[in-house]
Amino acid sequence: MNALVLGANGQLGLELVRVLGDRSAVPHDRLSITDAKAVDAFIASSKPDAVFNCAAYNAVDRAETEREIAYAVNAEGPSNVAAACRRHGATLVHFSTNFVFDGSHDEPYVEADEPAPLSVYAESKLEGERRALQSGARLLIVRTAGVFGRGVNFPVRILERARSGQPLRVVSDQRINPTYARDLAAAALELVEQGAAGIVHAVAEGCTGFDDFARAVLAESGVAAEVESVPTSALPSPARRPLNGCLASTRYPPLRPWWEALHEWAAEASKNP
Ligand SMILES: NC(=O)c1ccc[n+]([C@@H]2O[C@H](COP(=O)([O-])OP(=O)(O)OC[C@H]3O[C@@H](n4cnc5c(N)ncnc54)[C@H](OP(=O)(O)O)[C@@H]3O)[C@@H](O)[C@H]2O)c1
């Protein structure tokens, strides 16, 4: 497959490039998805079969005051990429988030559930989905949750805080499927091979609170530290987040259980601290 990976230095981008090869890598400093003309020219000259758009603005709290940037990257960006894919005959694989839902259901959210975003970040990601769907491009949207891989993420921040002796107060009432970027990349590639289209949820098996995820991160990394479980109301943040942030799929089986993937992540992180 002649593929391009946009946002190639992010957590997911790195794992897709690992499989697809360095030639697929298009990092942010080479192409910004907010530049419609540059995106069109790049895709026209590279003639890819598939474009994986891993570029995103993921600063959930900052987005509340940086609305324009969040929309430029998360809504206009996918619109630019989708238009170029349609014009030049490439399949677009775009990634979205569990945060498009408000988390009020008891059960994990499936593809047919109605989005109801709670934050600027979530609104901008949902708008990106809508614009990509309206573009007429051959399109797969993969929604996922709680991504961890190489780079800065929840497990890394927990370990940094624990190692520097800071207290760990972690919310117990926000739940996610912690999803390993490497497993997500493999799932996205398999979905493309299967010719999947439309919206598909791809997350690890298992749904857990951030507090228990933090405990598992510490245990797998051999770091002894206490985690205090607190409700969301005890840790106010600028953006509202869904309490039930768990996804399930009626179209694709769950990825490897998150605790097994975390075991592999921790073993690798200990080799490359
Ligand atoms: N992380 C999560 O927990 C999570 C949860 C649910 C869904 N998702 C979705 O999953 C996908 C992959 O997330 P991730 O965790 O791999 O994200 P990530 O690690 O934050 O990587 C995003 C990448 O996009 C790049 N980027 C930002 N603005 C760009 C622009 N204008 N043009 C081109 N590249 C740009 C960033 O580069 P710079 O660093 O240079 O800005 C970064 O390399 C995203 O769609 C995200 O919304 C993530």
Order of helices and strands: EHEHEHEHEEHEEEHEEHEH
Mind telling me the C-alpha Rg?
18 Å
Question: End-to-end span in angstroms?
Answer: 33 Å
CATH topology of the domain at 3-152 and 178-206 and 246-255: Rossmann fold
Q: Globular, elongated, flat, extended or rod-shaped: what is the shape?
A: globular
Summarize the biggest pleated sheet: 6 strands, parallel
List keywords for this structure.
binds NADP nicotinamide-adenine-dinucleotide phosphate; two-stranded parallel sheet; 6-stranded parallel sheet; 273 residues; alpha/beta; Rossmann fold; 8 helices
Q: Could you characterize what this model shows?
A:
The structure is a single chain. The protein is an alpha/beta fold and 273 residues long. The protein contains eight helices and twelve strands. The protein has a six-stranded parallel β-sheet, with helices on both faces. The chain has a two-stranded parallel ribbon with strand order 6-9. The protein has a two-stranded parallel ribbon with strand order 7-12. β3, α3 and β4 (91-97) form a beta-alpha-beta unit. α1 (11-20) crosses α6 and α5 crosses α7. The longest helix is centred in the N-terminal third of the chain and has 22 residues, at 67-88. The relative contact order is 0.16. The model has no long low-confidence stretch (mean pLDDT 97). The site of NADP nicotinamide-adenine-dinucleotide phosphate has 27 residues, from α1, α3 and β4.
